[in-house]
Amino acid sequence: MGIFFPKRLCVVGLLSGVVCFLISATPFGKSLEENFGLAFLFKVRGGRAVPQEAVICAIERKSAEFFGLKQQPYKWPRTLHAATVDRLTALGVTGVGLDLFFEESRSAENDRALAGAMQRSGKVVLLQRLKNLTDFSDGNRHNPEVPPDNIRLEQLIQPIPLLEQQAFALAPFPLPRRPVRLDQAWLFKGGAGGRATLPVVLFAMSVPGLFDRFIELAGLADPSVLARDGPFAGFSSESQRFDLVIQQAKTIFSVNGKLAAEMKKILDQGGWKGARDQVDQRMLHTMIDLFAGGNSTFINYYGPPGTIHSFPYYTLFQQKEDTGIPALQGKVVLIGLTDEAEMGEKDGFYTIYTDPDGNHISGVEVAATLFANLVDGSSIKPLGALFGSILFLILGIGIGVVSHLLPSLMAVLVSCFFCLAYAAISYALFVHFYLWNPLVVPLMLQAPLTCLAVIFLRQRDIQQNKRNIEKALQCYIPKSIVAQLEQDFSLIASRRDVVHGICLFSDIENFTPLSENAAHGELSQLINRYYEEMFHIVKQHEGMILDIRGDSMLALWLIKDSEIIQVDNACRAATVISHIYNNPEPASRHHLPTRIGLHRGRISLGNIGALDHYQYTITGDTVNTAARIESFNKQLGTRLLVSEKIAQNSVMSQFRKMGTFLFAGKSKPLTIYELLGEEGSLSDKEKELSHYFAMALEKFQEGRWAESREIFESCISVNPDYGPATWFRQLCSRYITSSADYHWNGVISLGKK
């Protein structure tokens, strides 16, 4: 798990961050965030205070009834609109935006009346309609005269010339129709030559002299703007067609990428006197961002339909003193339709605040909302690509760290808390700073996937570590015991079994002088290679290694079903070991003469130890006897001795009886055999030796020492290096000398331990 943290953890966090950031940048991801994330923020936040500067003069049913007119507001007499403009001018408004189309001429009297009112006001903005000229039908997909999909040609439909001449500014205000939810709107319409839309024009004229100071500030940042041949030489915000001036300003900012930064620098330093107060400074900042920013914005709604300050159209014509009209001095008033259903017009838009009954926000309310957003600087600011990528990376790594360090259930709970905290912070940023952080992709996709991925990888590492531990334990403990300890670790102190089995005890001959003369590194390599081959032989013959101490090894064959099979397996393993390591060639890399003892019996198998140290091994008389048999090889000059219980239960091997012996410290004698190899593997010389040795041993056990000694000498003549024959010949000579005092029972006592 140390490898998993932090390298792979960082990879998981970075990968989840990059993938989720890319998803959020796709149209699908943006749609998710807009349709669900932004909607969630609006729903939780609810309504908010509307700036007093935005006011709507609402054309609705009561006004139509008051004037006795039909409900289609576009057919109302223009003399009525002229009177409305005059009354608003008299109330001291800063500007009037007519959210009505005047594309067709009516009676000359009506048209002149409205034109006159507009001239007297000098601050009336008329609406332009946009007509789409691009045909995107399938038949024109490959027509070279039709522009590609990402280019849309649109034509501005102007008001009638008489009204156009008297308008302070003209502005379009295109909005999509249902069923698309209205979350964004144009500030500048690219398809219409980059024209500023109605809310932008109204904002630029909302504070007297604000746009003049804005141009002055631009001239300080870039003197070429106000130079004699500059784009704003002789500029005056009082000139007609104010919209063309705004369009020119937008062009300047798009060409000069450093202009906005220089203007903000001058503005923030505080030395310029053009910003009269903090409100003025804030609005200049907003205007700089407006002209230096994109062409569209997300709408920061103030609430459901009717939230924007409004008064009915007809109240301007009431004679009573208390008409309910708010104070309009220094404010911008938009005149437009607010009640589409009752007025028989389709001017409503599906928004986040559209209720189940289908009550929509009208177009004039949308325009007033955008205007108010600019006034109070509350336009929604989506998280940029740079900060978005950083955010996703931090979320990915943060959730990855939590999921890695804590248990799975706790990691899920903490990750949920982490997500709630992120949602709360995002909500606070949205409410107080109008910052829109992504919610759906990080919380619904990134967080659970990162958490699950890290938990999965951690569990996989835990399982891998478990397998490694199991594999390591199986080097010391049998696999079955490891499985039992996994289920109940308390068994390590209490679990002991009495079983029947065959013990093989081995020891390297003359290992002490070898270890004294060999270099430490060479000795380690030699003994490791020795045990590697020994273990392979034992396991290949279905045995298990229980202990190694220095140059000695203890192996076990448990007797479960067939005793004969296990005895033969143990004998075969002992024969193979003896054949490999008792090689007569000293130059052989396997030349490590090894003595082996085999015995069968009851064994106590389990863990021995206390506190925090245990060893899985076998104990009992069978183990001790196998060790004594192995050690007896040294006296006889043999390499492979077994007990009678082994010899009697093997059908695949050949043995040579060595006699009956009473080992030191034992009360019962044992009959010992030499294991010669598998059945049918003896040479003629070995068969002859076995014949003589059996005859000599028979005479020996009868107490006929002299006859036995002569036959043992015959064995030596067959094989002068055969140790047991030499040992018995010497024993016969000793018995002949002491026969008068020796009470013979056929058992050879081996003396002290």
How much strand? Answer: 15-25%
* Helix count, DSSP H or I runs of 4 or more residues: 26
Termini Cα gap? 52 Å
The secondary structure category is alpha/beta
Q: Indicate the radius of gyration in whole angstroms.
A: 52 Å
Q: Whole-number average pLDDT?
A: 83
Q: Main beta sheet: strand number and arrangement? A: 9 strands, mixed
Name the shape in a single word: rod-shaped
Q: What low-confidence regions span 5 or more consecutive residues with pLDDT below 50? A: 1-5, 135-152
- Count every beta strand, where a strand is a DSSP E run of 2 or more residues: 24
Share of helical residues: 40-55%
What does this structure look like?
The chain has 753 residues and is of the alpha/beta class. The protein contains 26 helices and 24 strands. Helix 7 crosses helix 13 and helix 24 (684-701) packs antiparallel against helix 25 (705-718). The relative contact order is 0.08.
